[in-house]
Amino acid sequence: MNLLRKILHSRLFMVWGSTLVAIIICLAITLVLIAHSKRTRILDAPSKLPDTANPTDILPPPEQVNIFLLNPTSLEITPVQVELRLYSEPTERLKQIVSALVQETLPNYRNPIPRGTLLNEAYIDSQKTAYLDFSHHLADGHIGGTTAELLTVTAILKTVFDAFPNEIIHVQILIDGKEKKTLAGHLNLSQPLRF
Length: 195
Prior knowledge:
By secondary structure, the chain is an alpha+beta fold. The chain has two domains: 2-38; 62-179, GMP Synthetase, Chain A, domain 3. The protein has helices spanning 2-38, 90-103, 137-140, 146-163, and strands at residues 63-71, 76-84, 119-124, 129-134, 170-175, 178-179. Strands 3-4-5-6 form a four-stranded mixed sheet. A two-stranded antiparallel sheet has the order 1-2. A hairpin with a 4-residue loop joins strand 1 and strand 2. The model has no long low-confidence stretch (mean pLDDT 84).
């Protein structure tokens, strides 16, 4: 019995001993692999980051621009100066200026552009025609009448031609990307307009 006990104990010792050695070897291999994977080598230094933001993202200082609004006492479209930070590229400037016209209602003036109107897009072609694509609110929200329609179109045209005296000759007004015959049934908008 004693001998059997010695054999069992020695086999058990051998099993435990070999298991312990296997665990130690696996642990050592794992540690070596982890240590090797953490060693990263930078072959080239990364390029230097710019000191300032992208120059095209920086707006220039504010400048005075005329937008044309309705003077309720004289019932005339009159220039009103607003301060805008304008891009130098003509199409972007056009978008900014016409968007300001659509959104601005200054004290003591009325905006002849119907509330809720947005400028969807603007484009200037090689023939110096500006295409202004307004949301449907320009026509759907219009109060109607020849005078009101004339005031709305005049405000748009005067604002554009004042800001772009040499760059734009004609203005084509679009509604949701399509030519519309009139805003409210009076003025013909199917052709590009000019003063």
